[in-house]
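Run log // design_07
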């Protein structure tokens, strides 16, 4: 196998992300095929963006604007998401295709799904309502007891 020229090796290091310490031969054909592959992917991603739903693009812009607002609030120190931030980001997940979540949202998809689960669990929480049979009215209870006493059986 023939060793690659220094220019081809530099292209491979910069474009393909090959580490500089790799000293083995880098075939020029491999570099050219990799460059063609990256170019084709870049060209095919343009129609994908153009054909994507407008609502998904709008939702993506809303996520980015909200992320900027959060980052402006927390210029110094750690970013902390408030419940309103979590609600907004969890609500926008339904408008954006799941494949784009990792590139769009500032948190991992697992975190988004956990926020959404907590949001739904909080909405469908039945702690305030009573379970079981409703209490019997006092007048009805006294009537039933009086009829039971009067029954000759």
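design_07 sequence
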């Amino acid at each position: 196998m023939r060793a690659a020229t220094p220019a081809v090796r530099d292209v491979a290091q910069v474009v393909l992300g090959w580490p500089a310490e790799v000293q083995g031969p880098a075939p020029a054909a491999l570099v050219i095929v990799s460059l063609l592959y990256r170019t084709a992917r870049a060209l095919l991603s343009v129609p994908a963006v153009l054909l994507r739903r407008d609502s998904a693009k709008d939702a993506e812009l809303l996520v980015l604007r909200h992320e900027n607002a959060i980052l402006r609030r927390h210029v110094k120190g750690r970013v902390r998401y408030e419940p309103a931030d979590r609600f907004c980001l969890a609500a926008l997940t339904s408008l954006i295709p799941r494949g784009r979540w990792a590139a769009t949202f500032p948190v991992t998809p697992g975190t988004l799904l956990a926020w959404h689960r907590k949001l739904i669990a909080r909405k469908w929480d039945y702690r305030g309502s009573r379970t079981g049979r409703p209490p019997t009215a006092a007048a009805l209870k006294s009537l039933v007891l009086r009829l039971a006493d009067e029954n000759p059986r």
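The chain has a mean pLDDT of 77.
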